[in-house]
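Late entry, evening session. Most of the bench is empty. Finally got around to the prediction I had been postponing all week. Sequence below, unchanged from the version circulated by S.P.
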Amino acid sequence: MGAHDPRAGKPVIRGNNRAPMKSKSHYPLDTAFELFFSVKKAEGMRERTLADYQSHWRYFRDWLSESYDNITLGEITQTVLREYLIYMSNGRTKYDGVDNRRLEGETLSPTTVAIRLRTLKTMFNFWAKEQMIDINPILNLKPPKKDDDEIGAFTDEQLRLLLSMPDTRSYAGYRDKVLMMLLADTGLRINEALRLTTEHIDVKGRCVHLPAAMNKNRKPRIVPISSEVMRHVFDLVNENKAYFDTHHIFVSNYGEPLKADHFRKRLQQYGAKAGIEDQVRVSPHTFRHYFCKMYLLNGGDIFTLQRIVGHADIATTRKYIQMDDESVRIQHAQYTPLSRLGMSKIIKRR
């Protein structure tokens, strides 16, 4: 999603025809959010999380402004929140109002809706604990169900095509290819990869040491790297030293740390050039899906995978056990017990 997500057109349900239920608490919305935000900032929440709080609140606040006149915190009921949930799921246009990103007829994915609802739950739980609202309206509100096949990953052929697109004769092209290889080889999140410096790389141990501050769950972790990918990372570091005064691994043509949005745009260009943009979502996170899926398909155990990718909940890792029909056929052919018995030799036809 872009940083700015203004709405256009009419919301699903207008509030002019009926007013929400009144409450004893009449805290102004912005005052309530400012208190919540200042407390979370004082608690040491990550900058990325704080930024999500701000953007998710802005989306909700914009919708409220058009749907209800002068609504206060205590007047937000479960009905109001459910209307917003319906609006996000069905009543909006994806990237509406964002320059060059308007997609007609597309709504937010169930995952995005669930993330924004989770943010609102954090806020309303805080306000309820602070006794700023009489009743917590979000307690029994559930996110939309996700499709079983929602997790998309590259196929091996799609990844090969994508990796062949960058022009490695240029610095930017070689850097992009190394970054793609690293993401596919380790399952790192894009922000984790882009924050890597030379001090995080253990060449002899062939791994990355991620400190707690760089991890989503605030726990340090060690991420192994294959020898081939480590060699390319080492070569990129040496090239950086020759031209830039930086300790970052992935930098722009001017030596500044590479931005995630810039890489996403270049990745989409590679996907279009490879002709796979209509087959799979070409994004940095799809490399993470690819790594997780292929790790399990190749015989890796789920608990080791959880540690490598830094999932706080094993339930998140279990989602990658869901396989498509082709993957099931491949696994069956490889592991069926009869294949070890050599049935074609045992059964002889007359």
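Two things to note before I forget:
The longest strand covers residues 207-210.
The mean pLDDT is 81.
Will write this up properly tomorrow.
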